[in-house]
Amino acid sequence: AGPQVGVTFEVRAVTADGEPRALPKLTLTRGAERMAFRRDGESMVVMRGDVGSRNLALFDLESGVERRLTGFSRDVTVGDFDVSADGSEIVFARKSESADVMLIDR
């Protein structure tokens, strides 16, 4: 894999057959590079922000339209997250003075 250079990187994708899959431009920031495809194949949840402040957004894989899902203040940071199999729920670790696990229903 090699060293990570730079503060941002462009996301690219391939199909299950290893063929390139066209995506609208999606650039993520190092430290917030976590992403999860929704099972519908039409969108993915991405982490946005920097090390001190992270939020979740839904990225449409066809249009490139992004919709912010969370709006945490700087004293709350989203850690790791996952999307339920049917895509209706997101569970994530919230890093703050008291580390809670929260569930967002769509």
Fold blueprint:
Layout: E1 8-10, E2 13-14, E3 20-21, E4 27-29, E5 35-37, E6 43-50, E7 53-60, E8 66-68, E9 77-83, E10 89-95, E11 100-105
Antiparallel strand pairs: 1-4, 2-3, 5-6, 6-7, 7-8, 9-10, 10-11
Describe the structure.
By secondary structure, this protein is mainly β. The chain has strands at 8-10, 13-14, 20-21, 27-29, 35-37, 43-50, 53-60, 66-68, 77-83, 89-95, 100-105.
Task: Describe, in short, the structure shown.
The chain has 106 residues and is mainly β. It has strands at residues 8-10, 13-14, 20-21, 27-29, 35-37, 43-50, 53-60, 66-68, 77-83, 89-95, 100-105.
* SSE succession: EEEEEEEEEEE
Described by the principal axes of the CA atoms, the overall outline is globular
Counted by DSSP, the helix tally is 0
Rg, Cα atoms, Å: 14 Å
Kindly state the percentage of residues in helix: under 10%
Terminal CA distance: 35 Å
Mean pLDDT: 80
Structural class of the secondary elements?
mainly beta
Q: Give the percentage of residues in beta strands.
A: over 45%
Keywords:
four-stranded antiparallel β-sheet; mainly beta; 106 residues
